[in-house]
Amino acid sequence: MASSEAIGAAAGVVGLIGSTITLIQQVRNARDRVKGASKTLDNLSKQLNSLNRSLSLVRDEEALQTAAVEQQVRGIAEVAEELRSFFDTLAAEQQKRSIPQLIHSLKSGDKEDKQLADILDRLDRARDLLILQVSVAQVGVMGNLEKGFSVAFGILMDTNKKVNEVLGTNLVLAERLQNRELQQTEGSVPLDASDLETLHLVDQHHDIKPGRAEPGIGETLIYDNLTVGQARIMTGNVGVENWRKTAGRKTTIAKNKFGQDVRIMTGDQGGEAAKGFNESFWN
Fold it and tell me: Are 130 and 11 in the same domain?
């Protein structure tokens, strides 16, 4: 299996990051086989070290593993794959050259050096976008539209400290809430209407107005989600037998962005149907 195929098959962002870190090590190994000296080559090790630290941070901090961050890790992996291929190709070409030609291989300003500089520039931009997506992660946010949202302040500030140490920036949410008073009993900070709008927790929700559910009818709103890979949505009860009466429900699914594999099920499943559902729906 090619490196790009292995990355595509990685399960979840942790597996994806592990594959990308392995790919970065392959880039190091491929670079070591290339003869030449240029400022671009000299800066490569520093860039790869910074990238490695950034990816390791996301791997170790679950709260940062958002769908947007995962998308950007995939972008980094694609450029890293291109970089590895560049070094592999260049090393193979150099092996075919005569000894005098090797002396002048890959020097500052030549064709290959400019090509390398372009790839590294795109790799830097991909890392910058990763840092941006990390900085806007909604770390510690809990609650819902009905009861309101708050932030587990200790979790937020602990994660922010690690982000600052590695990336040299702060989480947007941490900067916004750093001077807020805690709810002493829970160690959390309540979010006001302005916070919710800034964090996109409620903006445009008014475009989707939950209907007036009749007595005994529950209502579920699935709104503004983003998934890169599989998406599974099930609203209902699994294991309810035919004789048991269940409450009705209304489900609204809108303004979501799902990956290629999406399955949606609304309703109840009982008996053998429930068994078959569990065996096939979630896989």
Answer: yes
The mean pLDDT of 226-235, rounded to a whole number, is 62
Q: DSSP string spanning the chain? A: --HHHHHHH--HHHHHHHHHHHHHHHHHHHHHT---B-HHHHHHHHHHHHHHHHHHHHHH-GGG--HHHHHHHHHHHHHHHHHHHHHHHHHHHHHHS-HHHHHTSSBTTSHHHHHHHHHHHHHHHHHHHHHHHHHT--TTEEEETTTEEEEEHHHHHHHHHHHHHHHS---HHHHHHTTPPPBTTTTEEE--HHHHHHTTSSTTGGGS----PPTTEEEEEEES-B-SSEEEEEES-BS--TTS---EEEEEEES-B--SEEEEEES-B-HHHHHHHHHHS--
Domain boundary among 198, 225, 246: 198
Domain boundary among 96, 119, 135: 135
User: What are 217's strand-pairing partners?
Assistant: 248
In this structure, the answer to whether residues 173 and 231 fall within a common structural domain is no
pLDDT by residue (tens digit) across 251-260?
A: 676 666 665 5
For the residues 120-129, what does the mean pLDDT come to? 92
Residues 89 and 29 in one domain: yes
Domain containing 78: what range?
3-135
User: Do residue 177 and residue 266 come from a single domain?
Assistant: no
Residues 119 and 235 in one domain: no
Measure the CA–CA gap between 90 and 64, rounded to whole angstroms. Answer: 37
| In a shared domain, residues 130 and 27 | yes
Residues 153 and 189 sit within 8 Å (Cβ to Cβ): yes
How many domains does the structure of the chain reveal?
Answer: 3
pTM over 0.70: no
